[in-house]
Prior knowledge:
Blueprint: E1 15-16, E2 24-29, E3 32-42, E4 45-49, E5 61-68, E6 71-83, E7 86-90, H1 93-96, E8 99-100, E9 108-121, E10 126-141, E11 145-150, E12 165-171, E13 175-188, E14 191-200, H2 203-241
Parallel strand pairs: 1-8
Antiparallel strand pairs: 2-3, 2-5, 3-4, 4-7, 5-6, 6-7, 9-10, 9-12, 10-11, 11-14, 12-13, 13-14
Amino acid sequence: MKHGALKRYGSKEGYDAEVLINCRAVIAKDDFVSTGILTYAQGDIMEIELPEYEVFQLGDKIKMTLYTKSGLFVFHSTVVAREPGSLIVINPPENRKKFSEKREFPRIDVKNVGYIAGFQNTTQKEQHHLENPINISIKNISMSGIGFVINDNSMIDGILYKKCILQVELDLGFDMRCRLEIIRKEKKEDGYYYGASFESVPAEQSNALRVFVLRNQIQTYFEQKRDEEFKKAMEKKSAANQ
């Protein structure tokens, strides 16, 4: 499907997110207006390539107008990152609802830790407190859940299974106590991998979690972008030497 081609997914406003890629983006702040190209849109962030990127500062409130083949989209946003030639801005929730993505909340690879303090047998409604908490290695995270690994499965063999509710504490640069529901389990080389969704997150920690996910999403995107640019440069150099 060509960029900009309209595709819907059930709902009346379910545009395919591809309509945004390579569309013209007009960014305005105060009395300054600049035009660029939207090159990335996933999860909470968008990237716009534009020559006057230096005029915009981190935290600037902006108005964005996107000219796509499926229509005109106008919304307000905030500049959250900048690098030569482009800006990273927030893709606000009300705008995200108009477009369909593979995941409602994209998962970001991380290297954090935590521990399981207890679990609940949902069938028997029993709650168990662990005298010796079980350490976990967090592999990925989103606003909807995490993926983690337990290296020593002998401690929990036959205990943790699908639909089991866990009481955990996550170290995300801040301590986050919450409840997780196990969605899946699979054997990995470094232990057992569990996919779990947040069953409850304290309201006061929800914003901190969003900031953590957003910061890591931006960092991951920049790392991948630089890796791709380096690879292309090396391929170009290799081709020139042949």
